[in-house]
Structures are given as structure tokens and as C-alpha cells.
Amino acid sequence: MTFDSTVVGESSPRILILDDELFMLKLLNHMLGMRGYTNVTVCEGARLALGKVGDHGAPIDLILCDLNMPDIDGLEFVRGLVDRQYKGSVVLVSGADERVLQAAATLVRAHSISVLGYLRKPVSPQALTDLLGKWTRGSERPGRNQPLRDPQEVRFAIASGELVNYYQPKVDLVNGHVVGVETLVRWEHPRDGIIMPDQFICVAEEHGLIGDLTRAVTREALNQSRSWVDAGLNFEVAINVSMDNLTSRDFSDFLVRQTALERVDPRSVVVEVTESRLMQDLRATLEVLTRLRLKGFRLSIDDFGTGHSSLAQLRDLPFTELKVDRGFVRGARDNQIIRPILEGSVGIARRLGLQSVAEGVETEEDWHLLRELGCDLAQGYCIGRPMPSQELQDWLDSWRSRSVALLAS
Of 220, 236, 275, 359, which is the active-site residue? Predict the structure, then answer.
């Protein structure tokens, strides 16, 4: 069974609801209509829904998908979306338990499909409103996944200076003071505009370009750090490095030379170790990181709890900071699975004498929970987005008043 509700215009988002229960189809359609979404198609079967996704009309922007369906279940339906190169977003709908829903959402993301979240049956109108609010803010709009860039293009971008640094503020959760920034590289492409790092960092790693890329980012970051110090802004500057950088024993020498050249105190530099791939040679990595610590640099284990960033790394490597991955921060207050992981990560950092940093702090609720848990530092869109260096002063002016309000609420 399938039917379309009234279309209000070409600019109205196109939404598809898939469920094997007619009552649920009508209920969700009604809820969407009450919130102004009337360009809605409902389908009682997955085959019909896949036909709608694959037709030659306007692309579907959002799918509300039941998981428990006869014939083709929700996960099989998602596999069909992959085959049809679906570029929109998905909301999962089910009465299954929390861990099953979490696993299903993770699977959909693994297929490179945007997942806004999930709705537990019976669906709460407020829960639907909250998810749609995330979508309309553009945090997970369709079409974000772009093809990887050509290695020769990346090589030219590094050599010609097309890579630029953006900086995201890190603040103290106790008093709201700005303690530093994380350096995040962007590619200012002459034709395509700003290109995000997920389209070229892994290309650089795969084709032996990550060393040159990291050095270019580091030089600019340290030069900018010197300018901030001269202006009276004593920020720490965090720089992301790959495991590939740490297999090169001359990386620590480069960092020491560059800080000396820019007259930057190594104690104000945080080296964030991003483990996108497994550590191949513990000896080389341990030597480089230990030498950096001996020279005064601080070391952060990035994205803790994901990939290869693990308790074993905390045991073996001389980190001074533990950075909790955003996946364990956003919406943690009411999530019975990720909140204990967040609490545990902050507790581990405290017991090991490490500074704890939460990334992906997007809401005031996230902010207040982290303060309750005793996390030290935070960064995320609730505080400030990554920005060019020239925009930082304006952000600082606005943050002073916003931080007072946050701390008082």
C-alpha cells in the first residue's frame, strides 16, 4: 500500500514513511503534517518504498523506516538504499531495545548514510520534533558524503598552499575561560570552494603525503600561535597527527625546530594522536612520543573509545590528555548506553591524572552534563564552530557574554 499526501511546493522536503502497520503510517503522517511537512509519501512495504527511492522524480530527503517488517526488514531495506545510492537521511523507528537500535544506527552509518537517530514505539511527538529539529538545522542534511579527491590534486594543494587552518575553541567547563584551540585543516579549492578533511586526509595517508600535509598545517598553526601570543592571547594550540607521522623518527625533531623558530613554548602545544589506522611499530611511536614529552609537548589521545584509541594506548603511551569522542557526548544525558561510557572515560582520565576533553558539545544539555561529571574542557558547536584565525576575536567578544549565561543557567 502506498499513498502521497498533499505537496506544498517544490522546495518542501520530500519525506517517505515505511512501516508495515497502517495505523503507524497514518500517525506519523499526521505528526509530520502538524509540523508543516506535507510532501510525504507513505509505504506499507519495503519493495514499494525502494521503488519510490529509485524513481526519476524529485529525490527523497528523509526516510522514516521501521525495522521490524515481514518479507524485507529495515536493515535489508537500508542495503537497498545503498544499491540505489541514496543521499538523504534516515530515522529508524522500532520497538526494539536500546542496544539493538544503537547497533542498527551504527550499521546504517557504516553504509555512509546519514542517520538523524531513532524513534521508539510508541512514537512521542516531542521525540519526532527533536529529530526534525536536528535535520532542519542542517547538522546531518543529505549530500554530505562526497567522493575522495585525486592524490595528484592533494599533492598539488599541499605544495601550492591551498590548505588553510581553521581553529575550534576549547574552553574550561568550570569557569568558561578559553584555554586554546584545535587546528583543523581545510582545502580552499580554486574551483570547488572549501573541501572538508574527510575527502583528502585518508588520501594523503594512503599515498605517502601525510608527512608533508602535517608539516604544512603545523607551520601555519605555530606561526599563528606566535601572533596570538604577541596579541596577548596565550592559547594552547592542538595539532592533529597521524600514526604515519609517528613512525618517522625525525617528526619530533621537526616539531622542536619549528617551535624554536616561531618562539612558541612547547608546553602550549598539544599533539593530538588520531589513530585512523593500527599502530604498526610500537617502538618508533613510543620513541617519538616520549621524546616529545621530554621536550615539554603535551600529548592527547584523540577520539577515545573508537577505532584503535583504547585502554592499551593509555597504558603504553605517555599521554597527558584524554579526548572523548563526540559519539559518546551528544545526547548522553538520557542515553542508557553512551552515558556510562562518557562517565567512565571522564573517570579514567581523572584517576590517571589526565586532562579530560569532550568534543562534539552541541547543546546546553551536553554542556551541563559534562560539568556535572567533572569533565575539564569542552569544544563543539554549542561553544564555537571551527573558524579562520581572523574571526576568532569576534567570537571571543561574543563568547564572554554567552559563557556567563551558560554558567548561570
Answer: 359
Average pLDDT (326-349) is 91
What is the overall mean pLDDT for the chain? Answer: 88
Domain endpoint, select from 136, 159, 182: 136
pLDDT tens by residue, 240-283: 998 888 888 889 999 999 999 999 999 999 999 876 554 666 78
Share of the chain above pLDDT 90, in %: 60
244: nearest Cα among 216, 303, 284: 284
Domain range enclosing 289:
151-408
pTM: 0.75
CA nearest to 7, candidates 28, 30, 36, 50: 36
Co-location of 168 and 230 in the same domain: yes
Residue 15 placed within a domain? yes
Q: What pLDDT does residue 10 have?
A: 43
Average pLDDT of the segment spanning 98-118: 87
368 and 272 assigned to the same domain: yes
130 and 249 share one domain: no
Angle at 399 between CA 396 and CA 403, to 5 degrees: 145
In a domain, 211, yes or no: yes
CB-based contact 272:241 (threshold 8 Å): yes
Domain co-membership, 190 together with 292: yes
- The domain tally of the chain equals 2
The reply to whether 140 belongs to the active site is no
Q: How distant, in Å, are the alpha carbons of 7, 305, 341, 397 from that of 328?
A: 38, 8, 7, 30
